[in-house]
Automatic annotation (TrEMBL):
Cross-referenced PANTHER family: MANNOSE, PHOSPHOLIPASE, LECTIN RECEPTOR RELATED (PTHR22803)
Protein name, per record: C-type lectin domain-containing protein
InterPro entries tied to this protein: C-type_lectin-like (IPR001304), C-type_lectin-like/link_sf (IPR016186), C-type_lectin/snaclec_domain (IPR050111), CTDL_fold (IPR016187)
PROSITE patterns (alphabetical): C_TYPE_LECTIN_2 (PS50041)
Domain C-type lectin: 2-122
């Protein structure tokens, strides 16, 4: 268990929508990243699964009509939202992934939602 959510690494490569449905079938959502400590907890979960680096789907998304990012649990992306250098305002794509490795310690970046990546599910702890 982690500070605000239980996390599960899913190694299967899926689109963002497929990954979200998979997490929902397990009783959760794609993970939210509310703080730097949660990004670190996600990294620990990924490392525990034997994957210390790479790109992974998390629950951030937006729409062409509303470019404000929100998480799958419908909470807004906080000021934390540590985007990868130079990626903050691009909004070219509508789904968020988290990147670890090559000097990137849990930064967020938008990506085509149809890209297939492993994912991190999260279930909020109440």
């Amino acid at each position: 268990m982690h500070s605000q959510q239980c996390l599960l690494f899913v190694p299967r490569y899926m689109t963002w929508a497929e990954a979200q449905r998979n997490c929902q079938s397990r009783g959760g959502q794609l993970a939210s990243v509310y703080s730097a400590s949660q990004a670190y907890e996600i990294q620990k979960e990924v490392q525990h699964a034997g994957r210390g680096y790479g790109q992974f789907w998390v629950g951030g998304h937006n729409t062409p009509a509303n470019l404000s990012w929100s998480w799958s649990d419908y909470m807004g992306v906080s000021a934390f939202a540590e985007f990868c250098r130079g990626q903050e305002a691009k909004h070219k794509h509508h789904c968020l992934q988290i990147t670890f490795g090559e000097g990137k310690a849990g930064c967020l970046d938008d990506m085509k939602c149809e890209t297939k990546l492993p994912s991190i599910c999260g279930s909020l702890i109440m």
